[in-house]
Design brief:
Largest sheet: 9 strands, antiparallel
Number of strands: 23
Radius of gyration: 24 Å
CATH class of the largest domain: Alpha Beta
Helix content: 25-40%
CATH topology of the largest domain: Aminopeptidase
Number of domains: 2
Strand content: 25-35%
CATH superfamily of the largest domain: Zn peptidases
Number of helices: 11
Shape: elongated
Distance between the termini: 36 Å
Length: about 475
């Protein structure tokens, strides 16, 4: 296969279809309706529940009617991030792709392999006219990226079956058998404005951090641009007019901007920040880039009232963030919090956070700690999209079978782990407690960022495993 040629094959045909139809969270209906149409044109049953989740059923082959039904599950929505300079509309445009060094990636946007490639694998097998075996179903949920909302509203009749394969993991040969629960936290804080002070008007931009997924990458020392920006402001003699950092709640901020008024000219501010940048970089992983720029801007009309600004910026700079506790027994964070976004709308500062934990009680404690950090400020607090974790069952048949098949195919034992990110499997296990569940997928890197890419060879291997795994489960 030559570079910049889209891969070929059954899975890639399905992924190409998915990429061609816009599917941000909350706008998956065009894609799901097209998939239902494709299924019905092949004689398969397709149905929607009241929330818009889709199930596609393929009947058992003759002689396999008594075999246990296997569900393949993934979500249809994608995180929508793009390079700042790129003119692109996720609501109307399909994803453009390139191939480089064995990876498929997008051209300046997120790729949506999370979880489009999982959905594509499920569709490929459902639509394979040569497959012989027991009953199969694909369960395709919506609004996963905004708090597992589709799964939380899934009708119980969409989960009829014995085994469920969640196809939303991103490292080949590593199988998730448990996950953290989580919640989203929002604070709305009225901003008292005052007339702008005399001084230099400037824009402070923190950029270059890799960002990433707040579950998968919260422990990778990527840094948080919003927290660092607040720390710069807290240690500087500047008045603040505005702060802007827009991300989904489960994205670690890679960039943030503030507009300020300073007695120091922009070049002096930039020099003052140099030592602070170097100090902050000591907390980051090797190779992580960080840039702070200060640019002069046109005159500002107002600023945050000074006493209020001190309390607010101090709270933002010192809010609990990142890994709060590590679970040594699983090798992953036990509890974490992510400060994701800040924006002023109509005189109100909107702050967005998410907390995760393997222990539901500790997740609630983390949420309260974040709220407490802002206890000197009047605010409206909302905790939403709470979901439970998925308790591991290492000795279940589905886990043992996965190990046997993987080792037989590829000559090595797979790794079983608990993941700090939220997986829909946690919710699905509560809707149908009789299900045996496992999560796996091909290798992908930098998901939820414009550097997202998926290994082409890994997709082929994992799809080959999935087909053999299902055959073994249905023996």
């Amino acid at each position: 296969m030559s570079e910049n040629t889209f891969p070929t094959g059954r899975v890639w045909d399905m992924f190409k279809l998915i990429l061609s139809i816009p599917h941000p969270s909350g706008s998956e209906h065009k894609l799901s309706e097209r998939l239902a149409q494709e299924a019905r044109s092949r004689g398969l049953e397709a149905k929607f529940d009241s929330y818009g989740n889709l199930r596609i059923d393929r009947k058992a082959s003759p002689g396999f009617e008594d075999k246990p039904a296997v569900l393949m599950q993934g979500h249809l929505d994608m995180i929508c991030e793009k390079l700042p300079e790129l003119d692109f509309d996720f609501q109307t445009e399909g994803i453009k792709t390139e191939v480089s060094d064995g990876y498929l990636h997008a051209c300046g946007t997120t790729l949506g392999a999370d979880n489009g490639i999982g959905a594509a694998m499920a569709l490929a097998l459902l639509f394979d006219e040569n497959h012989v075996g027991g009953a199969l179903a694909g369960v395709f949920t919506v609004e996963e990226e905004v708090g597992l909302v589709g799964a939380a509203n899934l009708s119980s009749d969409m989960l009829c079956g014995k085994y469920l394969l969640n196809l939303d993991s991103d490292e080949e040969g590593i199988f998730a058998i448990g996950c953290a629960g989580g919640a989203r936290l929002t604070m709305d804080i009225p901003v008292p404005f005052a007339p702008a002070a005399c001084g230099y008007c400037a824009e402070i931009s923190v950029s270059g951090l890799p960002g990433g997924h707040s579950g998968v990458e919260i422990n990778k020392k990527h840094g948080n641009a919003l927290v660092f920006l607040a720390q710069l402001l807290a240690e500087s003699k500047v008045e603040v007019s505005d702060i802007l950092c827009q991300n989904a709640d489960n994205v670690i901020p890679g960039a943030a901007v503030a507009r300020v008024i300073s007695s120091e000219p922009p070049e002096s501010l930039a020099n003052i920040f140099c030592s602070k940048v170097e100090k902050y970089k000591e907390q980051l992983a090797d190779g992580v880039e960080l840039e702070v720029t200060v640019s002069e801007i046109s005159e500002l009309d107002s600023m945050w009232e000074s006493a209020w600004r001190k309390k607010m910026i101090s709270a933002m700079a010192n809010v609990p963030n990142g890994v709060l506790e590590f679970a040594d027994e699983f090798g992953v964070p036990r509890t974490s919090s992510n400060f994701a976004a800040a924006k002023v709308n109509d005189g109100v500062l909107n702050l967005h956070f998410s907390q995760r934990s393997l222990d539901n009680a500790k997740r609630k404690e983390a949420t309260e700690l974040v709220i407490k950090a802002f206890d000197k400020l009047d605010k409206t607090v909302s905790v939403s999209k709470e979901y439970s974790g998925w308790n591991p069952a290492p000795e279940s048949r589905i886990n043992k079978t996965a190990s046997e098949v993987w080792e037989k195919l590829y000559g090595e034992k797979p790794v079983f782990h608990v993941i700090h990110a939220g997986l829909e499997a946690g919710i699905l296990s509560k809707i149908n407690p009789e299900l045996e569940l496992i999560s796996f997928g091909p290798t992908a890197y930098d998901i939820h960022s414009t550097k997202e890419r998926v290994s082409i060879d890994s997709v082929e291997r994992v799809y080959g495993f999935m087909t053999e795994f299902i055959k073994k489960l249905q023996q």
